[in-house]
Specification:
The chain is an alpha+beta fold and 580 residues long. It has 5 domains: 94 residues, DNA Primase, Chain A (Alpha-Beta Complex); 126 residues, DNA primase DNAg catalytic core, N-terminal domain; 115 residues, Dna Topoisomerase Vi A Subunit, Chain: A, domain 2 (3-Layer(aba) Sandwich), CATH 3.40.1360; 66 residues, Pheromone ER-1; 127 residues, DNAb Helicase, Chain A, CATH 1.10.860. Helix content is 51%, strand content 11%. It contains 25 helices and 17 strands. A 6-stranded mixed sheet has the order 12-14-13-15-16-17, sandwiched between helices. Strands 1-2-3-4-5 form a 5-stranded antiparallel sheet. A 4-stranded antiparallel sheet has the order 6-9-10-11, covered by helices on one side. Helix 15 runs antiparallel to helix 16. The longest helix is centred in the first third of the chain and has 29 residues. The two termini are 37 Å apart. 39% of the residues are buried. Bound molecules: zinc ion.
Length: 580
């Protein structure tokens, strides 16, 4: 982290979360919390809560949550440091020169070195494509009619593999430590490295600033997966980076085009559509959607016309809509992908296809129609009610009306009846608060144990006496996986320094947004007990659940001696008691 904790806490505590969020989202007091419509997912009934006491927010609909810094990161699409600067400015707080701190300087040097390494590697691959070794890859590009100009524009290359890249990078003077972090090499058994990419056509992946951050490689003649990527590094994140974004963002188009593959991006560029981007062979994620939103307010989804492509489009749409993008969808007819389409029918036909892209709602309704047999009454009814739900998500009444007529047309069901279904779907309250559990569990997901962990941590943060009692009775590792053991340790060490454990400060101890969400979920609850006895009883119940689950988790890997020990321990759990 770039700035010392005290500075981050100064900025955080100086910015009251309620006044910050209220400038983005209208909030209304409801009980101890304030509520509003969540800015991170589409909803009609407020499930987004803000707590002044805890200085945190939490959405019971989508699970978004965190402290005031998390909020700015999410809503302004900023990184941590920019969000910190943004909030420091807001309260006229002068940040120390963070760039000078030792750790910051080290991180910055590492990133700079990685950029330099990726650039050299790109140059190496590029040269290999022009060398005799790259002949087969060049022939492949010829067959796909990729012009020389386009090859240069996208810096396409060829990876001969073996140890060619390792040796090249060593000769260029890159230290072993950096080689290990490059995402391009794989450690061998003798403490050295070999190339991750062998016999592959190479696509350098550039960030929006135009720096090479990683690579995708398509197999040429050899074996292995058709496409592989660099592994993630401090400058490369597959779930975030978009192929082609450095050129697409400069295009004049108001919308980006989302396609599935590297070759689609390249082929579209060559046909005069520089606004195309692709996820890097990974499933399209919320982060990708946010990366699109940073550059445009709208996008056309153009995935392959096969079943897999249609499924991928249906999966991507909710992320894109959640990010606040206006989404249209189109599919190529009589071709398997955009590349093939342009080759068969030309750029003008493709422009027509783009112009005819439909709203995502119509696309979703059409797909629904394909899955059902509208000749059957039950399917017709199911179709109508599912379509009504999709229509209900549209804010615009005129659009909704148009969709209702469309559905009425295909089903023969009266528009009035569909409109009523839509109304019903719109007024339906958000589903009961549900917290997404993303931790991985050995064995089955144990909801009781999660509740116990959350309950105990919540109470430990609220009351020094309880945290003292729990500290004596539980080791952090007994809290299992995820954020819980770390949270418990942090609370214990904050108590040692007699600090108050404000949820927002605990959230700050986690850098990862997903982890911050999980921490927020812990504190979004309200634990209230009528008296001390019932509180003590609840604590002891949760404590026992936790102990048992810790023991259960150990059983699958235990040998017979350990097993006997575990069984004895489990029997003893009943006798344990913590007094508060
Ligand atoms: Zn939400």
């Amino acid at each position: 982290m770039l700035y010392p904790n005290e500075v981050i806490e100064d900025v955080r505590t100086g910015n009251d979360i309620v006044s910050v969020i209220a400038s983005y989202v209208p909030l209304k007091q409801k009980g101890v919390n304030l509520f509003g419509l969540c800015p991170f997912h589409q909803e009609r009934t407020p499930s987004f809560s803000v707590s002044a006491d805890k200085q945190m927010y939490y959405c019971f609909g989508c699970g978004a949550g965190g402290n005031v810094l998390t909020f700015i990161i999410q809503i302004e699409h900023m990184n941590f440091v920019d969000a910190l600067k943004f909030l420091a400015d807001r309260i006229h707080y002068v940040l120390p020169d963070g760039e000078n701190s030792e750790e910051a300087a080290r991180q910055a040097r590492l990133r700079e070195a990685l950029y330099a390494l990726q650039k050299k590697a790109a140059r190496f691959f590029y040269d290999c494509l022009l060398s005799p070794e790259g002949k087969a890859a060049a022939a492949y590009l010829d067959s796909r009619r990729v012009s020389i100009k386009t090859r240069v524009k996208y810096g396409l290359g060829y990876a001969p593999g073996g140890r060619a890249l390792v040796e090249f990078l060593r000769k260029e003077g890159f230290a072993d430590e950096l080689l290990g972090l490059s995402g391009l090499l794989i450690p061998d058994k003798r403490g050295g490295y070999y190339d991750r990419f062998t016999g592959r056509l190479m696509f350098p992946i550039l960030d929006p600033a135009g720096r090479v951050v990683g690579f995708g490689g398509r197999v040429i003649g050899g074996d292995g997966s058709k496409y592989i990527n660099s592994s993630d590094t401090p400058i490369f994140d597959k779930s975030r980076n978009l192929y082609g974004i450095h050129l697409a963002k400069k295009s004049k188009s108001a919308e980006l085009i989302l396609v599935e593959g590297y070759m689609d991006v390249i082929s579209l560029y060559q046909a005069g559509f520089p606004q195309a981007v692709a996820a890097l062979g990974t499933a399209f994620s919320q982060n990708h959607a946010q990366a699109v939103k940073k550059h445009r307010d709208g996008a056309v989804v153009l995935f392959d016309s096969d079943e897999a492509g249609t499924k991928a489009a249906l999966r991507a749409i909710p992320f894109l809509v959640n990010a606040g993008l206006t989404i249209r969808v189109t599919q190529v007819a009589d071709a398997k992908d955009p590349d093939e389409y342009i080759k068969s029918f030309g750029a003008d036909a493709f422009a027509g296809l783009l112009a005819m892209a439909k709203s995502h709602t119509i696309f979703q309704i059409e797909q629904l129609n394909k899955q059902l047999n509208l000749g059957i009454l039950t399917d017709r009814v199911k179709f109508t009610s599912e379509a009504a739900k999709l229509i209900a998500r549209n804010e615009n009444a005129i659009e909704r009306d148009a969709y209702i007529k469309e559905v009425a047309g295909v089903t023969g069901i009266s528009p009035e009846a569909i409109a009523m279904e839509t109304e019903k779907a719109m007024s339906r309250p958000v589903r009961a608060p549900r917290v997404r559990v993303t931790e991985t569990w050995r064995g089955k997901a144990d909801k009781g144990a999660i509740d116990a962990k959350r309950g105990l941590i919540y109470l430990a943060a609220a009351d020094p006496k309880i945290s003292a009692a729990l500290k004596n009775a539980l080791k952090p590792e007994e809290f299992g996986d995820g954020v819980y053991p770390k949270l418990f340790s942090i609370i214990n060490s904050m108590r040692e320094e007699s600090k108050e454990c404000i949820p927002a400060a605990l959230i700050s101890a986690f850098e990862d947004l997903e982890e911050q969400k999980q921490v927020s979920a812990v504190f979004a609850r309200a634990e209230e007990y009528p008296d001390k006895t019932s509180k003590a009883k609840a604590i002891n119940e949760m404590f026992k659940v936790l102990k048992r689950s810790y023991i259960d988790d150990k059983i699958p890997a235990a040998d017979i001696n350990q097993l006997n020990e575990l069984v004895k321990m489990k029997r003893n759990v009943d006798k344990l008691y913590i007094s508060i």
